[in-house]
Amino acid sequence: MRIAIIDESASRAAVIQEGLVAIDDCEIFVVTDRRGLVARIGEIAPDIVLMDLGNPSRDVLEEYFAVSRALARPIAMFVDESDDESIAASIDAGVSAYVVDGLSAHRIRPLLDLAVRRFNAFARLQSDLAEAKGKLAERDAIDQAKRILMDSRGMPEPAAYAELRKAAMNQGRRIAEIAEAVVTAHQLLGGKV
Amino acid sequence: MSTELAIGFLPLVDACLPILALEHGFAEEEGLSLRLVRDMSWATVLDRLLYGHSDAAHLVAPLAIATTLGRGRPAQPLSVPFVLGLNGNAVTMRPELARAVSPGGGLGDPRVIGAALAIEAKRRSDAGQPLRFGVVHRYSSHNYMLRYWLAACGIRPDRDVEITTVAPPYCADALESGEVDAMCVGEPWNSVAVDRGVGQIVLMTAQIWRRGVEKVLTLREQVLEEKRGAVEALIRAMRKAGEHFVDPENWQANAAILARSEYLDGDPALIQRAVSDRLRLVQGGAVIHYPDFMFQHREAANFPWVSQAEWLYTQMVRWDGMQFDPADAAKAARVFRPDIYRSALIGTGDDLPGASSKVEGSLGQATSVTTQQGNMTLESNRFFDDGVFDPSDLAGYLAKHP
After folding, report:
1. Measured between alpha carbons, how far is B198 from B303 in angstroms, rounded to an integer?
2. CATH code given to domain B89-211+282-288
3. A17 and A81 share a domain?
4. B164 in contact with chain A, both atoms CB, cutoff 8 A
5. Same domain, A63 and A106
6. How many whole angstroms from its chain centre is CA B347?
């Protein structure tokens, strides 16, 4: 089975590819460049195409499949209406699949399930990363706010932190929010951070 | 408690009415809570609609009909109770082609440009390098307007010139790289190509058909029945949004809203050009005013005329190589639902046409027509070649337009 993974994110394509290599008897092709996409797909002649739902080139690919003179041309994986559940799962995960007509459902199903799991795993990875970045930024703001208090009020570090925490508790807000407010106020008053 | 409606859209200026209905609180006044779902391809907007991720969608009109008729995927009946706007697209060419077919620059006469283009198309085709046009979707008004113009100028689409699909965000790149020689696309993508100096606007689709149907609000027929009340509330909210959108007082503020990252994620100055019908045609050139480049509100612009659906069906027969089938024509006609539009707005004082269908292209000048409350004036709705589309004779129209 020849599988093409089309994704403008090379790292996500790699995550999906890694998941699919476990399947026997599969040849996997990754296409990340939108230029020459249609010609590349023509060369690959895939049995299955996996593409992320956010890819602006989906309409281009569907047009190609619609007018392609190739005998075995893939059609959108929405044709087997009995399998609504797996289609819904794939839309939730953000992947679309095109499958050559005649490929049996028992071969496609496990493959699509796997792709969906990899897409979901990648999405989790992304949100973990975003969260980690957010935590770092918060840490930064708290350090800056402490320094401002230490400099302007001559406080030692533990007292500066205690001050921020007290304000947060009194106002029912997070320490990071109070710290950001201190930094912003300090900047507005002409201070450097 | 407010009813939630999720609406899918593509980042284009003509997604403005649902966006502004949300942003200015018109939807909330009607007891609606709107959630807008942004996507990057019509295929994904449609998938979300069909699988219930969204209740309604901003969609290219022919795609609603193609889906109902089962073109390319299993048939699913869709309904259009509201037209989101008329026109708003342009034909942008690579600068050297633009200079060859429209040497005077500016917005030329579509017949004159077409005649020059026919010569250029033949020259390129003889040289084994046929001109290539890009459109945003096979089932788009862009594709049908472009093909209508080319065919009427003696240029046979798919034979004398190639027509291919290009995603809107990549239009400027495709012109620059020579992947296509010309594009028919909505805003802000023509203006993006112009500002980058890779394209020149030669024609606006409103010059091809002065009142051509463009994007539509689409729902699954079943969802429309289930959420009828909310849909009618949405129609009222979007009429108010349209009134706000066309008021020059609000152009700048609305362009700034549309430009935000969660909507078009673009340049507010470029977006304001389309909003105000004032486009720059060539890099460094003057901004020119072409009235009704976009047409979102006046003359009951949002009324889903059954004749519009029928015209689109004839174009689908023409360009998909289908046989004309009266049963399909009837299915296509039923996609547009003037009954829902009327039911939503009756008693609001808004203009409600008395008829549900009209002879398209028949008005050469402002004409008074009957509405349920009295009269309203419709301005010219002509096709550039003076063609007339009479919805009572689809087969006859197709015979004249092979």
Report:
1. 37
2. 3.40.190.10
3. yes
4. yes
5. yes
6. 29
User: What per-residue confidence (pLDDT) applies to B368?
Assistant: 87
Does the interface ipTM go beyond 0.85? Answer: yes
B 107-136 → A contacts, CB under 8 A = 136
What are the tokens at A144? 């800056």
Q: How many CB atoms lie within 10 A of CB A115?
A: 21
- Other C-beta atoms closer than 10 Å to the C-beta of B99 total 15
User: Quick check: bond before B188 cis, omega within 30?
Assistant: yes
Which 15-74 residues of chain B touch chain A by CB within 8 A? 39-44, 47-48, 50-51, 53, 72-74
3-state helix, strand, coil in chain A (%, to 5): 60, 10, 25
User: Tokens for A175?
Assistant: 């320490």
Alpha carbons A47 and A183: distance in angstroms, whole number: 57
The CA distance from A58 to B313, in Å, is 24
Q: Which domain holds residue A156?
A: 132-188
The tens-digit pLDDT sequence of chain A (193 residues) is 899 999 988 888 888 888 888 788 889 999 998 888 988 998 999 988 999 988 999 999 988 888 876 656 777 765 455 567 777 788 888 888 888 877 776 777 788 888 888 888 887 877 777 777 888 888 888 999 999 999 999 999 889 999 999 998 888 888 888 999 999 889 888 876 6
The pLDDT tens digits for B319-328 are 999 999 999 9
Whether residues A96 and B44 touch (CB distance < 8 A) is answered with yes
Question: What are the chain B neighbours of A73 within 8 Å (beta carbons)?
Answer: none
